[in-house]
Amino acid sequence: MPGFAQQDFSKVEVKTIPVADGVYMLMGAGGNIGLSIGKDGVLLIDDQYAPLTDRILAAIGEITDQPVRMILNTHWHGDHTGGNENLAGEGALIIAHDNVRTRMSARHFSA
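RE: above sequence
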């Protein structure tokens, strides 16, 4: 069972923190999300856990009506890549080092 499946996300709030013009940090559960809004859409740096995708998109929708065009994954952990499938289904391009895909494709066991 994935680690996120054991967590209760029902009470997680996604908070938006302005950093600079068009740049934000989103806080929810796990790693933070970087958000850059440009003329051609939204770039996310990481995307947290899959069960939070709707709340993340709602938080982004409070800032802009631009679509999420790209996601940059910093590494393979689920709190950074968990929303990939959901957001790719919405049309986002996922960018990451080759080792991210390699690690995500491998089986991992918890002790």
